[in-house]
Design goal:
21 strands, Jelly Rolls, mainly beta, isomerase, zinc ion binding, 5 helices, 6-stranded antiparallel sheet, metal-binding, about 300 residues, single chain, Man6P_Isoase-1, zinc, 2 domains
């Protein structure tokens, strides 16, 4: 039983209108985030097809655990987003599970980014230029942000794994697909002294940030090997205890070898058809769905790309 999902849109001070390019009717002039596959209480998706049409994903997770292999996890573990950074995001960091569960009442947030598009000379912040905790604290206290933050140029097709504790920020003119733990806890370090519509600067969280930042930044591997076949291309982007994320480019067709109980799928380019047994579903850029335990005999045809994730 495949589950198609209705996106939830979030207004952000840094958002824009580029999500229209994913066939969405966006509600805001500053639409920053499409929560594409989410059971988080701050933005659960509604199912748009089948017997669970009208239910939210968290309700299906709770009422029909067999669709997900009865994993035993209390909450749906992942969240897929598309972000439109019309302006640069705040510089931030996320806590790990232990810290977040103790102080925030939810899991921590490890995430990863696939760069869908990037303006010329676009860049992100990834990690810090501090050798130890004392140096980090001193630079934060003095507001020496220009020296502290590590900048990296990005282009379309780059990939970044962003574990909890990593200082990061998405720069202006970048669109990403983000796969993350299902968490909405963010500690803001620096926000360029921006003000909202009421003239107020957004809250910073420097003490929490000091407690969770990992100064041992690793240079990310942004271009990963691909496996080329006649009718499709496969690329594993990352595999960790939190999630595995893959990119599939369908050139003609793919008989999908389903080895996990359920998969989260996002179509990021092109169009095609999903066949499950005797059923078929048209796919286009911006479609998001979950293949559940009941889905067998799965075929994809067409010319499109999709990001696939699972636990």
């Amino acid at each position: 039983m495949v589950l198609f999902l209705q996106p939830v849109f979030q207004e952000r001070i840094w958002g824009g209108t580029q999500l229209k390019n994913f066939n969405y009717n966006i509600p805001f002039d500053h639409t920053g985030e499409c929560w594409a596959i989410s059971a988080h209480p701050n933005g659960p998706n509604v199912i748009t097809n089948g017997p669970y049409q009208g239910y939210t994903l968290d309700q299906v997770w709770e009422q029909a655990p067999s669709l997900f292999g009865a994993s035993g996890q209390q909450n749906f573990p992942l969240l897929t987003k598309i972000l439109d950074a019309n302006d640069k995001l705040s510089v931030q960091v996320h806590p790990d599970d232990n810290y977040a569960q103790k102080y925030e009442g939810e899991n921590g947030k490890t995430e990863c980014w696939y760069i869908l598009d990037a303006a010329p000379d676009a860049e992100i912040i990834y990690g810090v230029n501090a050798d130890n905790q004392d140096e980090l604290n001193q630079m934060l206290d003095q507001g020496d942000f220009e020296t502290l933050f590590h900048h990296i140029k990005v282009t379309k097709g780059d990939f970044f794994y962003v574990p909890s504790g990593t200082v990061h920020a998405i720069g202006k003119g970048i669109m990403i697909l983000e796969t993350q733990q299902s968490s909405d806890t963010t500690y803001r370090i620096y926000d360029y002294e921006r003000t909202d519509s009421n003239g107020k600067q957004r809250e910073l969280h420097l003490e929490q940030s000091k407690a969770v930042i990992d100064v041992d930044r690793q240079i990310p591997q942004t271009r990963l090997p691909k496996e080329q076949y006649e009718q499709y291309t496969y690329q594993q982007l990352v595999s960790t205890t939190f999630f595995t994320v893959e990119k599939w480019d369908i050139h003609q067709q793919l008989a999908f070898d389903k080895q996990q109980p359920y998969y989260l799928v996002s179509v990021i380019e092109g169009e095609g058809v999903l066949y499950i047994g005797q059923q078929h579903f048209d796919l286009e850029k911006g479609a998001h769905f979950i293949l559940t335990t009941e889905d067998q005999d799965i075929y994809f045809t067409g010319n499109f790309s999709m990001i696939v994730s699972y636990v």
